[in-house]
Amino acid sequence: MDMDTLRDGIRDLIAVLVAEATSQPRKKIQCDLILSKLEVDSIAIVGIAMELEDRLGIEVDPTIAWDYPTIDRMADFLSNRLRSPGR
To answer: What is the pLDDT of residues 64-79, one digit of tens each?
Structure first.
C-alpha cells in the first residue's frame, strides 16, 4: 500500500470515528478543522484513540489530539508511524 492510500484510509477512519462520537453525519466532518471546532471533547478523544489503537495495532496516546489537532494532521502522523521501521 502506498503512503497516500494509507493516509487517506486513516483519515477516513478518524473522520468516521469523529462522526460517531459527535453524532454528526460523516459528510459534515471537515478534516482540516481543529477537533474542538467539530465538537470533539476529551472523553471522545480517549475513545477515538482506543479505537485507533485497536484498528491500527499501534499505541495511540489521547494527547495526539493536542499534538495533531486536525484529522488531516493526525492521519499524517499515524500513517508515518505505521510506515516507519521498528514502529
So the answer is: 999 999 999 999 999 9
Instruction: Supply the angle between the helices 42-56 and 71-83 in degrees, to the nearest 10.
Output: 30
13-33 pLDDT tens trace: 999 999 999 999 999 999 999
Q: What domains does the chain contain, in order, with CATH numbers?
A: 3-83 (1.10.1200.10)
CB atoms within 10 A of CB 47: 14
Indicate whether this model's pTM tops 0.85: yes
Query: DSSP for 14-69?
Result: HHHHHHHHHT--GGG--TTSBGGGGT--HHHHHHHHHHHHHHHSS---TTHHHHS-
Cell of 27: 459528510
